Amino acid sequence: MAYDLEEQEQIASLKAWWDKYGNSTTWVLIAALAAYSGWNGWNYYQRDQAGKASALYDQVQAAVEAKDNAKVLRAAGDMETQFGSTAYAPMAALVAAKSSFEANDLKSAKAQLQWAVDHGADEFKAVAKVRLAGVLLDEKAYDEALKVLAGDVPAQFAGAVADRKGDVLAAQNKLAEARTAYKAALDATDKKNPGRQLIQMKLEAIGGTA
Q1: CA 46, CA 40: separation in Å to the nearest integer?
Q2: 167 and 134 housed in the same domain
Q3: In the chain, how many domains are there?
Q4: What pLDDT was estimated at residue 59?
């Protein structure tokens, strides 16, 4: 089909543009397509990892229900090794720590809690800190417990951390510091939280007032 003059001019103009910019445009397009493909691939990988981690977490829970602490620890270890970047890993570590504590395996309980402190997101890390400090408190490892509790935590966990710090300081007979910690715990704990009453009782027991 013959082209009229206007169409020929448009084609000539397009050809000139392509000669000037076509190569760079092609590479930009290739890069964009590669990025899009990579993004889709990453999302698929994340979904796949989450699905496998979820199945393994079910195994952790099943072992807990069976009171098989050895199996709990194996499954939690697999989770941490294979799916450590997922939220299921610190969840499994916390579950495994509780299982080990109830089985009187304090070494494993501390190891699982330390893993959650080192690798978990802020929320999991805060919970693990409070629990690990509690185990260390039972062992009278007071300085180590205070070291675990150091550092920033999300605001919603500040009360629990300060409360645990008060417990450790009270056990060391550092009553003035313990009162300060319990008062900080009360300030950071919602007034509707039933745990406030226990914090206040501990504060009053060492001569403090809210």
Answers
A1: 10
A2: yes
A3: 2
A4: 93
| Residue 8 included in any domain | no
Place of tokens 């060391």: 172
Looking at the structure, do residues 111 and 35 belong to the same domain, yes or no? Answer: yes
What is the spatial distance between Cα 87 and Cα 134, in angstroms, rounded to a whole number?
Answer: 23
What number is the average pLDDT over the span 113-135? Answer: 95
Is 203 in contact with 179 (CB distance < 8 Å)? yes
pTM of the shown model: 0.76
pLDDT band at 51 (very low <50, low <70, confident <90, very high): confident
- 7 is a domain residue: no
CA 10 → CA 5, 13, 43, 136, distances in Å? 9, 5, 42, 80
The verdict on 50 and 114 lying in the same domain is: yes
For residue 70, give Cα distances in angstroms to 20, 60, 107, 132, 142.
68, 10, 13, 20, 29
Query: In this structure, what token pair is assigned to residue 198?
Result: 């226990």
